[in-house]
Amino acid sequence: MTEQTTSPSRDDLSAAEAELWARAPSPCIDVCKYKRQGRCIGCSMTKIEKQMFPQSGSAGQKKAFIEGLMARLHEIGRNPVFWAYTYRHKCEREGVPCPIEIEEAESEPREDRS
Predict the structure, then answer these.
(1) pTM score, two decimals?
(2) How many whole angstroms separate alpha carbon 6 and alpha carbon 71?
(3) Please, are residues 10 and 67 in contact by the beta-carbon 8 Å criterion?
(4) Where are the alpha helices (DSSP H) in the chain?
């Protein structure tokens, strides 16, 4: 089973989407160990990026920031779905709806390697 993360485009957010993204917490998933070129091994942000996350920024700014982070995870060879699941759990703990949708797509069955 292959999984993908999706979210609406940054442009033309509906009122409901704008409210959802405006309430989005920081993409930090509380690992905070810096190794990869000064990037956290949990969320791939630098310390400066963590401080810059638009806590009170617009929905569009937050959406752009998080989508850029997900693209970076993919570019460095990490599956952004793993981050997305942890981020969803963080949103649940904080009592806010998660703006990231995780969709599961069917794929060919994997061979049994036992």
Answers:
(1) 0.74
(2) 11
(3) yes
(4) 15-22, 47-52, 59-75, 80-94
Between the CA of residue 14 and those of 1, 27, 31, 43, what are the distances in Å?
31, 22, 33, 27
Average pLDDT of the segment spanning 25-49: 90
CA distances from 34 to 13, 19, 47, 50, 79 (A): 34, 32, 8, 12, 18
How many whole angstroms separate alpha carbon 9 and alpha carbon 63? 9
CA geometry: angle 7, 4, 60, nearest 5 deg: 20
* pLDDT value at residue 56: 63
Largest pairwise CA distance in the chain: 51
pLDDT at 44 over 70: yes
Q: Which residues contact 19 (CB under 8 A, 6 or more apart)?
A: 59
Judged by phi (left if over 0) then psi (alpha if -120 to 50, else beta), residue 41 lies in alpha
pLDDT at 28: 93
pLDDT tens per residue, range 95-104: 999 999 876 5
Short-list 70, 31, 26, CA closest to 49: 26
